[in-house]
Amino acid sequence: MKRHAILVFVILLVSVLLTAKVLKVAYIYVGPVGDAGWTYAHDLGRQYIEKIFGNAIKTDYIESVSEGAESESVIRSYAQRGYDLIFATSFGYMDSVINVAKKYPKTIFMHCSGYKTAKNVGTYFGRIYEPDFLSGLIAGIMTKSNIVGYVAAYPIPEVVRGINAFALGIKYVNPTAKLHVIWVNSWYDPALEKEAAISLLNIGADVIAQGQDSPAAQQAAEEYGVYSIGYNSDMGNFAPKAYLGAPVWNWGPYYERVIREVMSGTWKSEQYWGGMADGIVDIDISDLVPDTVKKLVSVFKDAIIEGKFHPFSGPIYDQDGNLRIPAGDVASDEELLSMDWFVDNVVGTVPK
């Protein structure tokens, strides 16, 4: 009798395993997975969840998808093919996600860095401005010319906020240094990024930072024999003699969390914005940075994680001398998410 019961249990178990639904997860990337930056970091997260969930999920991705009409077509294609969860990983995909989500209410959509939500659409991002500030501390100490260059992508709040955090880090340790910004209006254009970096080097910048996805600015800095600050991931292999470090992403654990919620039926639309305390963002520091500087960065990192320090603590003035954040105050999330002005040690403008 016991043997019969065990046999029945095994048959039922095998039947459940064979009929268990495989969760289909898609990723839409704005750049190539080999960009060594933003898309590369997201794809590391995709690979992470494949290892975690194994055969319980099926993932797919399309890289180098332009923002706008093309992205809407790609997102719709995945929804039509029955994908359960779609991660759209660029700010410019926002309206495309919302449009498709209306027609596919049973599909869950997650949009990275946006602000529009729906019952089946959530948003997610990381407080990359925290390690941006830390990397600014490094740049402010390591510059000798007091000219730091920044190759910027698009004049959206996400980018402006990161530039300001970086500039505030510079100012904290070096009040005489200036951050010079050049816009390239692209997330991934290595030739243009390198050209912009060289123009900054030609005005005397001896540290080059960036907000794009390729290591081109890093490579320009190495060719000119100066330092660089990367972005998104460890770019040290591309400029080992220049690379000081970078604000970096760690998407894997967050993607794991979302997938577990979808699998368990507990997922709900939210606007997630985690920081270093969550582990979604961090700072990578190379061996070119002196130990004393690493210790300083570590002190500030711990203070941010523990909630004892905020990069946007007042008083903070804009370029026109206006007091934007009074002493004793901290910028609200609303102010950070809508930021369209530069702090007073930035040279350059925010195009309207």
Automatic annotation (TrEMBL):
Residues 24-303 form the ABC transporter substrate-binding protein PnrA-like domain. This is Membrane protein. The lineage of its organism: Bacteria, Thermotogati, Thermotogota, Thermotogae, Kosmotogales. GO terms for cellular component: plasma membrane. InterPro entries: ABC-Purine-Binding, PnrA-like. Keywords: Signal. Pfam families: Bmp.
